[in-house]
Structure formats: structure tokens, C-alpha cells
Amino acid sequence: MDTPAPLALLLQALEAGDLPAAKAAARELQSPRTGDTRLAAEVLHELRQPLLGVKAYTQLLAEEFGARGTLQMMLAQVERMEQIISDFTRLASERPAPQQPVSLATHVRAAARHFTLNPDSARISLEVMVSEEPTLQGNGRLLEQLTLNLLNNARDAISGPGRVKVVVAREDDAPVLYVADWGPGVPEVMRQHLFEPYVTGNKNGTGLGLAVCQRIAQEHGARLELVPPSALPEQPPPTTLFRVLFPSLENTTAPSTS
Ligand SMILES: Nc1ncnc2c1ncn2[C@@H]1O[C@H](COP(=O)(O)OP(=O)(O)OP(=O)(O)O)[C@@H](O)[C@H]1O
Ligand SMILES: [Mg+2]
């Protein structure tokens, strides 16, 4: 592994005998945001490559012997590691991701496909309803991550078989995404701090998922909220309903991809 950037800067400054630069680098290393957080993000970033290797080999084995039992569990664990790495590096990054005109529904469908590939999702009946194909200015990968995090939360809250629904629509010219589930609901005590990092009610959770969702929503000028179940005309009404309301846009419509 290469020397992480904050450390490299400090070492360079020391080697060059540049005391002010060394002091600045040391200060940066000590600040909680650019020090610990950045170092952790860089280490996690480095881990991504070997992890992709492990994933590729596991997938090869699964193709050869069938994705059952231990192999299936290994793949799920690798997915989980990928999720933690992308959540953490997203939160630690101060740079907004590049944006372009994207079809919201396309990326929501991609997240839904990703979700169903996870063996733990097999017990969940997932419905994707696209009533509009809005195009918005955004980052497709992040929109996928946002949707997937909300879907994963719904699944993780439900202990056995259950139902989850995703809706892509347009409300008063604003693209909107709903993720509804008929699970146990968000505990009252969690509601106030739901979007803060490291707040979790799940023994295997890191509590980063919703913080990342919030950050992604903000990057898109969108509002992410836990809304009353009545906001979606479903019978019976869902127990938990998250809504991502994007800024209003011109009447552009992306071609349907499925
Ligand atoms: N759909 C939901 N139903 C019930 N509780 C939920 C739902 N979504 C989120 N929560 C609660 O909010 C908590 C925080 O969610 P968040 O996604 O931030 O973290 P996490 O899922 O615990 O961990 P991570 O996403 O990092 O794996 C969850 O642990 C859970 O208690
Ligand atoms: Mg989560």
C-alpha cells in the first residue's frame, strides 16, 4: 500500500526541511476530519481492490459449483464489505460527485436488481412501480446507492418474509422516489436522530446508511424524509415510508429502459 496522502505530505515536508509545511501537514493529520477520517477513507479505498479480487474469485467458484450454502454466505459478506466501504468513503469525501442528466427510474431499477441479487433479499417481495420516467441532474451511481441503502434498511427491519415497494413518480413537476415497507416501523426513540451517522438499531449495522442517503440527497438538492404512510395510496398503508423529493425540473422525459 502507498503511504496515505496526509502522511506522505508530512514526510515530504520533513525531508525537505520545510518546517511550516510540516506543521501544516501535522495539523491536518490531527484534525478529526482530515486526519482520522481521511486516513480511514484512504485505507478503505485501498481495501476495495483486493476485495473486488475476492468477489471475482468467489463468483467464479459460485459459477463452477453453484451459489449455495457457504459460497452464498461469502458473497453476501463481500457485498456487505463493499457497502460499508462505499458508505464510509462517500461520507468522508468532501468533493461532490460529478453530475449529468440521468434517468431516475433507470438507477432505481438497477438498485432493485442489485437488491434482489443478495441472497438475504430472497424472503422479500419487492415491487417497483414507475409511473414517470423523469430525467434529473444527478449522479447515477449515487442514486443507486441511495435507493439500495433504503431497500436494505427495509429488508433488515423485516425479520421473515415481507413486502417492500419502490415508487418513482413526479409530483408538481418534481421527481420523487418512495421506498415503502410493511415491516415493524422505525422505533419512536430513533426518529429524532435517524439521519445521524453511527445511529443504529441493528446489531450488525454501522449506522452509516441513512447518513449517506441524506448526504446524497443533499448533493442532488433533494429532501429525504421519513413521511406519514398516508403519503402513498396503498391498502393496507405501509408502516415505514421514506420519500426523496428532488427539485422541480423542466419537462424532460428520458427514454424508458425496461
Ligand atoms: N425501513 C425501516 N424500518 C425500521 N427501522 C428502520 C428502517 N430504516 C432505518 N431504520 C432504523 O434506522 C437505523 C439507522 O439506519 P441506517 O441505515 O443509518 O443504519 P443501519 O442500517 O443500522 O446500518 P448500515 O446502513 O450502516 O448498515 C436502523 O438501524 C434501524 O433501526
Ligand atoms: Mg442501513
Model description:
- The protein is of the alpha+beta class and 258 residues long.
- The chain folds into two domains: 5-92; 100-245, 2-Layer Sandwich (Heat Shock Protein 90), CATH 3.30.565.10.
- It contains seven helices and seven strands, in the order ααααβαββαββαββ.
- It has helices spanning 5-15, 19-30, 33-65, 69-92, 104-117, 140-157, 209-219; strands at 100-103, 124-130, 135-138, 162-171, 174-181, 223-226, 240-245.
- It has a five-stranded mixed sheet, with helices on one face. It has a two-stranded antiparallel ribbon with strand order 1-3.
- Helix 1 (5-15) runs antiparallel to helix 2 (19-30), helix 4 (69-92) packs across helix 7 (209-219) and helix 6 (140-157) packs antiparallel against helix 7 (209-219).
- The longest helix is centred in the N-terminal third of the chain and has 33 residues, at 33-65.
- Mean pLDDT is 87; it is low at 251-258.
